[in-house]
Specification:
Layout: H1 4-19, H2 28-53, H3 62-80, H4 96-99, H5 101-137, H6 140-147
The protein binds heme C.
Heme C (HEC) binds at residues 32, 35-36, 39-40, 42-43, 46, 86, 91-93, 97, 104, 107-108, 111, 138-140, 143-144, 147-148.
């Protein structure tokens, strides 16, 4: 697990690099790291949300986890735009994400819409209104089964 000193050190380094007047490009490893970070935070927020539903974590935080997921979901499609296939040691994204881009992006956009609808329900009616929508909103597995190599 990344520790906080490493993260802060990383920011300091990024700030230094930003002062150097030169164009840098995201390489393949950056692309893979970035989409994994975006997906990992979806995983963490989803797990936290389910804890609030199971009364293992404060119910007051339910709506903010939904909001975090709604925002986080909008970052995912962009993270998959560069065609960098996964495979051994390179992440788990299957090549058919890019050969089947229309379907993959439709699935991702549908997921974003479901998170937005869940967010709206949670902001307007709290857990009581949003909880019944949770199961159909989490289309994570459907996409993973099709586009992500099994662990
Ligand atoms: C439209 C497709 C799609 C949807 C929807 C989707 N995922 Fe993913 N997810 C992927 C793909 C593809 C990968 C593999 C990325 C890689 O390894 O480069 C992935 C990887 C992950 C990972 C592993 C990240 C890592 O560090 O290896 C987690 C955790 C995850 N997703 C959680 C979720 C959760 C939780 C949801 C729903 C709330 C979700 N995903 C919805 C396609 C999707």
């Amino acid at each position: 697990m990344t520790n906080i000193k490493k993260i802060i050190g990383g920011f300091a380094m990024a700030a230094t690099i930003a002062l150097v007047p030169m164009t840098t490009h995201a390489d393949d490893q950056d692309t893979i790291d970035y989409r994994k970070q975006v997906m990992s935070s979806l995983g963490a927020q989803a797990a936290a949300l389910f804890m609030t539903l199971q009364q293992k974590a404060p119910a007051e935080n339910f709506a903010s986890h939904v909001k975090a997921l709604a925002v986080n979901s909008t970052q995912a499609l962009k993270a998959f735009e560069p065609n960098v296939e996964g495979g051994t040691g390179k992440g788990d994204a299957m090549p058919k994400i890019w050969s089947n881009w229309d379907d993959f992006s439709a699935k991702m956009n549908e997921f974003v819409e479901k998170m937005a609808a869940l967010d709206k329900a949670a902001q307007e009616g709290g857990m009581a209104a949003a909880a019944p929508l949770v199961q159909e909103s989490f289309t994570c597995k459907g996409c993973h089964d099709e586009y992500r190599y099994a662990e």
